[in-house]
Amino acid sequence: MSVRPNQGKRPTLVGGVSDTSNSDTSSHHSEHNHTTSSSSSSSPVVSPRQLSPQHHNVAHVSGIVGPPHKQGSLTQASTHSGESSSLNSKLGRESAGSHSGSPPSPKSLGSSSTTTTSDPHHLQRHHYHPQQHLSSVLAGTSKLSTRDAIMRDTQLSPSALSSTAVTASTPVGVSVPVMSSAGRSPADRTLSRDEPTLCPGEVKHETARDVTYLCPYTGPKKGVLTVTNYRLHFCSVEPEFDLSVPLGVISRIEKVGGATTSRGENSYGIEIFCKDIRNLRFAHKQENHSRRLITEKLQNFAFPASNKLQFFAFHYEEQFPENGWTVYEPIAELKRQGLPTESWRISRINDKYEVCETYPAVWAVPAAITDSKLKTVAAFRSRGRLPVLSWLHPESQASITRCAQPLVGVAAKRSKDDEDYVQQIMDANAQSHKIYIMDARPNVNAVANKAKGGGCESEENYKNAEVQFLDIANIHVMRESLRKLQEVCYPNIDNSHWLSNLESTRWLEHVRCVLSGAARITDKIENHKTSVIVHCSDGWDRTSQLTSLSMLMLDGHYRTIEGFIVLIEKEWLSFGHKFAQRVGHGDDRHQDSDRSPTFVQFIDCVWQIMRQFPHAFQYTQDLLLLILDHLYSCLFGTFLYNSEHERVDADVKKSTLSLWSLVLSHAQDYQNPLYNPATRHHVILPLTSIRHIRLWDTYYCRWNPAMRNQEAVHQRYRELQHLKEQLDQRVNDLRGNLAARNHPQPPSAPAPPAPTSTAV
Amino acid sequence: MMSTLKHRRHGSTKNSLFHVDLPSQSQQYEERGVDIPEEEPVTQPDLFPGEVVIASADNVLKFSPGGEQNTGISGTLFITNLRLALLTTLPPTYQEEALHHLSLSHLFLGAHDVELCLVSSVCLLDEQNQRRKTLLPEHFLPEKVPGIQVILKNFRVLNFSFKFSPYGEDGKVIRALLHHTNPSNVDLLFLTPGTPPPNTFIPTFRTYNDWMSELERTGCPNWRVTHHNENYNLSATYPPVMVVPSSMVDKDLEKAGHFFRESRPLLWLWGAPGGAALVVMAQISPNIPDTMSLNPRSFGQLKMSKLEDEAKAIENSVIKAVFRSNSEFQECPEIINLEKELPQPGDLQVACSRLRALHLPDGASASSYLSRFESSKWLSYVSRTLEVACRAAQLITEHNRSVILQEDCGRDGACVVSTLVEVLCDPFARTVRGLHCAIAKHWVALGHPFTARLGHTKREKHLQGPCWLLLLDCLHQVCVQQPHLLEYTPCYLAALWSAAHCPLYTTCLFDCTNSRHSTISRLQLQNIEISELWELWCWWASCKSQSPATNSVGDGASQGLRNSSSKSSNGAANSSNSRSSSSYTTTRTAETSFTTKNCNHSSTDTGSSRSSSTECSKSCIIARRHFISPLFVQGLLNSLLSPGALDRIRDKFSVAHHTWGQIQRLLSPSVCHLPYDGSQAPAPVRGCSPNTVTRPPTRSRLPPPVYVNYSVPRLTVWVELFGRWLPETDVSCDGVPLSSALHSQKRCILRPENPHLLFWDDIYAIYDVIKGYVDITADGITRDRRQEYAS
Q: Where do Pro residues bias regions lie (chain A) (predicted)?
């Protein structure tokens, strides 16, 4: 199991100049047909003649639904004579994908595609047999290649929550229980049709048969709905279809149709609104009374916080070889930045979270300030969140410090200590005699906050400080914007007004604003060698976005996988971004006005930067997708609770697993082959005009099969690197052969050595 | 703002850098090491034969593109009948230099030169550099013009200020500019930059052989080549030789011609081996006077309706002829009425001018960019065009059904769609050489009215409609979605858009073959010497930086190709390298056979030591790297990995041999100048290479066409073309490209870069490995042979 059987068979592309492009095309095409065959499903018998491009498109976009049709026949018909070549190339790519990214590790194979259940019987039945499966593909007996099977899976079942790209290309996939069904072969799947593969600690609670899933893209499917304490699982046999949704993503459950009012087909059931930009609708049969049971269980387990239950993270019993809780060590991170220095020291004044409840235990503050002064400064800042160091420039000593708004109020109060403190932060950087205070809010909002006792520093009182407003809207505006974006993206897209609809959500504009603010901070630090203080109202939403994004631009360390984890742990988790409140973990008040997609927006910004600098990041967008999926899933303790203090109280590190354990255990899957380590020394400054901001469709539109066919560059590159390795080895073999022949061999040696294909 | 300008003068009186407190900019120049030479001022640009300086103005300031009006360069502005040239000793900005390298006109023009054909409009600027009004030739100019804004068709904007120029010169320059931007006749555009490179082997589709070999290549049966239009007596706008159904005799053709607009009954453009053909047909129009000659006796009595009936009958007979040519006789040809489905040239012009307005430095307000882009309707036009092309491609490949594209005269949308269909269906058309063949066939031979649609002349300004841009954008979408299937990149497509406005290339200058011939003969009558004409693809031939004979130089070039991007950033340092390099003289002698002219004025600063030829080859090397898709090359390399393929490289009849040949042509400029060797027959449509042993040609169906998702949300705004010159408002991101930053440990700001470019290093690494392998096996074989002989 540790070695993939077809490893040697990778170079199966036969042909020359135009051959290659041919087979490429056909393989693409057939893939596409699979997509349509499984998604558009228009009529029982689709002759290839009817398959016009319009047909495809209409089916994709407007989600015309109809009875399913046979999978195999269409595949066969549409690939025509090019079938053999397409099969060839498919295999070639297939196997390339399968072991190019990661050297086949038994570990990842096992955990990704098998079901590591505690029940031995279960394990036996669902065990994944890569060998058997692959050989059947090679022999051509299976109508679906692995890739197709996976395509179907990822296309249709949002169960492949994390990283469609990875799964599409590497069957090894990502080992997340969330998507454990992705790697199973069709044969295996039919065995276990009804049963979801449970992850360790998961318990089945309710099963309902004869439920119809109303897929907006591919039409209704009849199957079995299962609710566990972790997920909702739907599975239909004909057509084969899996859907697995962690209960954490559910934001609200609504019953559709009453017992007496429901007439037509599929009008009686439930609708589930999810936090990850999709809605699920299930139709129940009234006579089965399954709806009540399912809804009860869902209400119970989807909202543990409201029901005084524990999060599933506390029950999850997976074993990971790496421990993610140890990645971020505050002191080590500060030391990496060069602390303590002449002008900066590490303070433990907040050890018991007494000075500031929402701040971490360890701070870096100017060396000149005494601990007692710190307390008076904290008193002048909203919620005691005084300026604390986020990042220090390794050369110029320019710094990014973060805080909350000063408590200026209508009376225009002043605090001498606070003013001195700002001066000390400026003095800590000998290169500049100026300091910028970046207020993330629009100017009017800052003024309005005075009524609530907040406000902004005045340039008169703070000598040498320049206040700039970055015009980023508040959490309510962002929430509303994302809601509009969801309306535009899900389920169907209006082609004719796409751009203006997109613009009317203003989401891209908000993203642009955040990015542009971060770029301005970066510019001040790097080009002007001036320190910057960042704050918004409370210093845990927009401030976190700005500091972490500018740190990402300034410091290449944060563009590595470990560094990114540190960045999130430090700027978001330890500095008290209220994840529980903003996401609403396990909370049934879906209209809570404290919810907001601040963190999603940050990840979107990271993606924007990544798109412009594909070589500067050690990770790919797959990691970003994984993080966002588990932001909601409640499988890991990482994003639970509002602050470090609360997490310590709940003993999260002991009783739950860290998302980073998963990430680090399968770091290979998130590695960006384009990554160039030399970029670590450099600063990246993205273009922030609206022309360069794109919609992150791999996230927002990922449920829509029509929006999913762009080439992944890093996948190509992975193949290229693989190719290089193979060739190098082959040529080395040859050199060895030649050298051996040159010396002792008799002259009648056979013709040039033909390296066997298995040598590669 | 202007009053704050500090005018710094360096050595020469004419050339200076002016500057308003932006230290980084002056630093940038100093870092580039540009030493302002103590030399006699340059008096005039190098002129082509026939080029005349019309007007000039001293001390004209050119602002850096974009809206920041505080940096720029000063020099002498010349208006000739070809271009607008700024003579200065100062180097162009990074952006300008990049554009210069990546344009096809860099062979002839300097970095500060602009072809007059590219000028879209000229606007008057006021003292605050705000745009006031668009200038027309008949407008009365104020006494002193503060400045002008020149808006180019390639979405670039140039600002000139005449603040420091001598009194009266501004008016002269502007009048000359306005007058010569709008010549009354295409003859006036005509200039030849010298002898073009040797034959590029791109067929002209003006000869019997070209069409015949195209028929053979595609394997499309039942069509024949006719000379009937040799003297343009059938149709003035058709090529002299054309392909028609075998069942149609010349007399039928002649008769049918009278009933179609511009006498363009039908023209075969492409076909599948199965018999499905791609045909372009004009609309019927019975009320042309020619009909009288058809039947003069009865014409008087004929009612209009009868004429129409007859026209319908003729149209039917033509369609039937197409139908009969399809050997399988399955279904009648699909007639796609492009007028209903596609935007008309006028619509395109409106869309294009909206795009241009949207991408002016002050025209794009951030908050409404997307909706304004949408209201230009450009993307929906692209989407519709791709949809039609995909449908046609599907019909031909999957159903073996002929497609007739019917349009007004069949010269606009038909060109776009037919090219796209060929690209989608035929792997050959996805290569650079194939693209060139397609342009020669679907655009030049078919008679796309370039002069009118691109607005080259004054008379036809109202007929403008950038169908050409529509095609390029559609291809760009294919490139973005399937980057590994096309040999060329969007960057090359963008270069083609600009190059279409360079009158030194004649490909996109004329309305049809006929007007091309008549223009040339007219000019010859006037004793204007016309040697061979430069076609767009001559760029690839002259791009051959060194002659194959000097091998050492050739290696140097391929070496240079690898390091080219690092060279580009420190151009000045590079020039000193080239001065000292020993290969330089060799290059020069090798280069003398081409009279490639380079009027790079920025090169004058280092005196004559910096040769134009090395400069040109550097640009060529950089450009090739941008123009060829590394992912496509990767696909080729992949195919060499199949078992035993490497061993078959030496076997002349094997696929591997040809693949390897193609890779060599793509990667090492010293082997051959075009990405395809012209002496070789292009690959047949079926997709199998000349290796008839492994795969005998069958009348099999074509492979499925390239899949393109043409729904609007899936299309990409071509920011690299449209928005390339717009300034970044928030922070100026003046970084260095990654490739040149890689080796420096110094902390610096990186510039966003095309990810594909970095593929090249690995591609070359693999190439070297295979090359080594091939050499070793070659050694092995010869040694074996020798030993055999010895024994």
A: 744-760
Say whether both A308 and A336 belong to one domain. no
Position B355: which residue type?
A: L
Query: CB of A441 within 8 A of CB of A474?
Result: yes
For chain A, the C-alpha Rg in angstroms (whole number) is: 28
Query: Are A277 and A420 in the same domain?
Result: no
Co-location of A234 and A329 in the same domain: no
pTM (two decimals): 0.81
Question: CA B108, CA B596: separation in Å to the nearest integer?
Answer: 7
Query: Rounded mean pLDDT of chain A?
Result: 75
A542 annotated to bind ligand = yes
pLDDT > 70: percent of chain B: 74
Domain range enclosing A129: 87-181+189-314
Which chain A residues have a beta carbon less than 8 Å from that of B396? none
Per-residue b/e over B399-425, b at no fewer than 16 CB within 10 Å? Answer: bbbbbbbbbbbbbbbbbbbbbbbbbbb
3-state secondary structure of B243: strand
Q: Which amino acid belongs to residue A581? A: Q
| Residue A492 tokens, joined | 């169907």
Best A7, A14, A19 member to test B by mutation, with max B CBs in 10 Å, is A19
Per residue in B607-618, pLDDT (tens digit) is: 333 345 555 577
Which pair of tokens denotes residue B404? Answer: 């007739």
Residues, chain B, total? 791
Average pLDDT over residues B566-582: 34
State which amino acid sits at residue B417: V
Q: Residue A716 and residue B398: Cβ atoms within 8 Å? A: no
Instruction: Identify the residue whose tokens are 């369609």.
Output: B319
Is A588 within a domain?
yes
A642-701 pLDDT, tens per residue?
A: 999 999 999 999 999 999 999 999 998 898 888 888 899 899 999 998 999 999 988 999
In this structure, of A715-719, B442-446, B689-693, the range with the lowest mean pLDDT score is B689-693
Residues A288 and A349 in one domain: no
Q: Write the burial class of residue A73 (CB in 10 Å: 0-12 exposed, 13-18 middle, 19+ buried).
A: middle
User: Is B258:B235 a contact under the CB 8 Å cutoff?
Assistant: no
A582 and A690 co-located in one domain: yes
Contact flag B387-A493 (C-beta cutoff 8 Å)? no
Question: Cα angle vertex A277, ends A97, A575, to 5°?
Answer: 90
CA–CA separation, A4 and A168 (whole Å): 18
Exposure class string for A560-575: b at 16+ Cβ within 10 A, else e:
bbbbbbbbbbbbbbbb
Residue A77 lies in a domain: no
Q: Are residues A428 and A446 in the same domain?
A: yes
> Regarding beta strands B277-282 and B403-407, do their DSSP bridges make them parallel or antiparallel, or are they unpaired?
parallel
Q: What is the dihedral of CA B510, B514, B516, B518, to 10 degrees?
A: -130
- Domain ranges in chain B are 6-182, 208-482+501-525
Q: Report yes or no on A399 lying in a domain.
A: yes
d(CA B395, CA B381): 21
**One domain, residues A103 and A251:** yes
Checking if the pLDDT of A746 tops 70, the result is no
A150 falls within a domain: yes
Beta carbons of B689 and A19 less than 8 Å apart: yes
Domain B6-182 has CATH 2.30.29.30: yes
- A vs B, Cβ pairs < 8 A, gives 326
Dihedral pair phi/psi, residue A725, rounded to 5°: -60, -50
* Measured distance CA(B279)–CA(B325) in Å, rounded: 11
Whether A472 and A549 map to the same domain: the answer is: yes
The partner residue sitting opposite B747, judged by closest CB among A26, A81, A395, is A395
Nearest to A318 by CA among A660, A656, A667: A656
**Residues of A acting as catalytic residues:** 536
pLDDT digits (tens, 9 = 90+) for A692-731: 999 998 899 989 888 875 656 667 777 777 777 777 777 7
Q: Which two tokens stand for residue B471?
A: 């095609």
